[in-house]
Structure formats: structure tokens, C-alpha cells
Design a protein that fits this description.
The protein is α/β, with parallel strands linked by helices and 231 residues long. The chain has helices at residues 6-16, 34-45, 79-85, 89-111, 135-145, 161-168, 198-211, 213-216; strands spanning 26-29, 49-51, 54-59, 62-71, 74-77, 123-127, 151-158, 173-178. The chain has one domain (6-213): Rossmann fold, CATH 3.40.50. Helix 2 links the parallel strand 1 (26-29) and strand 2 (49-51). The longest helix has 23 residues, at 89-111.
Amino acid sequence: MQFRDRADAGRRLAAALERFRAEQPMVLGLPRGGIPVAAEVARHLAAPLDVIVARKLGAPGHTEFAIGAMAGELVRVDESAVQELGVSRDYLSRSIREETDELQRRERIYRQGLPPLAIAARTVILVDDGLATGLTAMVAIEALRARGPRRIIFAAPACAPDRVGLVRRLADDVVCLLAPWDFQAVSLWYDDFHPTTDAEVIQLLREARARFPSQGGPPGTSEVPPPAVPT
């Protein structure tokens, strides 16, 4: 299976997530690349869409390889990777400062003054465009767990098979369309994997909020009672 682009991957992933429709889930995407995928999932499930900003801490000279990740005030470092690569504490501290600034910048421009959607007692589907090291997904799940959701499902079109088990320890369920033994990188499973821009993220979030005005209006309107969940 090869995905044409993130929208195509999102539509296929949405079909695999159909079984959660009755729980009236909330869909949260990891920017930037996870938002186009999450937008298709939210549209298919008629679910609200929100963003959770998480940032990877990249290795020196190879920033796409995560040696840690952060979301909100949570910072998690892969100490084994740090030691194996000989990463200095000065580099790590500087990376955390830089990524904190970028995380805060993205929070400002993506939220546009709106608060996060209330997820307490709700089923949350956390979506990314792929799962490589799993560090960003895991720190995002930890941050979401502190907000009291009923349960968290992590979903991605393509996943490194040895990382799925790690994420499953933190999430209540994991849905991956592909987990090939020769995974190598997320980008290999897409024909078009061009970088998602801030403008695209903002537009997709704006469109999603328009479908749920009571949950995307002025600050204070996002607190809605959770739906009854079938037993």
C-alpha cells in the first residue's frame, strides 16, 4: 500500500477508525504533517478537530532523528540515544530552549486566541502522518492523559513496527494501516510528502471550527458536556 498524499492517507485511515464513530470522538492532530491526515479523519467521523503541539528534540547533525520530545510543559529524553550518540548536555539544553520557543509560537498561531477543546471524559483520536521513533506521539499522549479523556486512540497511516508496542503501552488502542518490516522512514510510504505549511494547518483548523461553531468560537465556548457513550 502506498499513499498518494496525506489527504489520501487520512481518508483510508478514517475508514479504519469508523468503529469509533458511535463514541462521538474528538480528533487531535500533531502538526504540522499530522493535521491534513487528522482533518480527513475528523471530516469522515463528523468529529471536532483540534491540535496538540508537540516537538521532537533532534540529534546533532540529524535533526529528523528524535532523541527526545516535548508537549506543553512535558519534556521526555531518550537517555539511551543521548548516550549512544554522545549528545552533550549543553546541546540538549539549547535544543529544549529552541523547541520551547517554536512550540509556543505554533500554539499562538494555530489557536488564534482560542483555548484547547475540552476532552475530559471523551474518546480522543490522536493522529499523525506516521510513527517513526514514537517519542513525539508518546509525549503527546502523556500530555493528553493529564486532561482526563475517557480513552486515547493513536492512529497513523504508516508505523515502524518496533515502535507500535511502545505507543500501545501509553494509548488505549493503536491503529496503523501499515507497519512494514522494511519501514525505514515515513516519507517512503507517500508519493507526495511535501512539507505541510503553517498556512495549511491554520486553514484546515479554521474549516473544522466552522463545522462546529459551538466548539470553535470565542474563548470559553469550548467547554461542552461529554456525550453519552453506548455501553
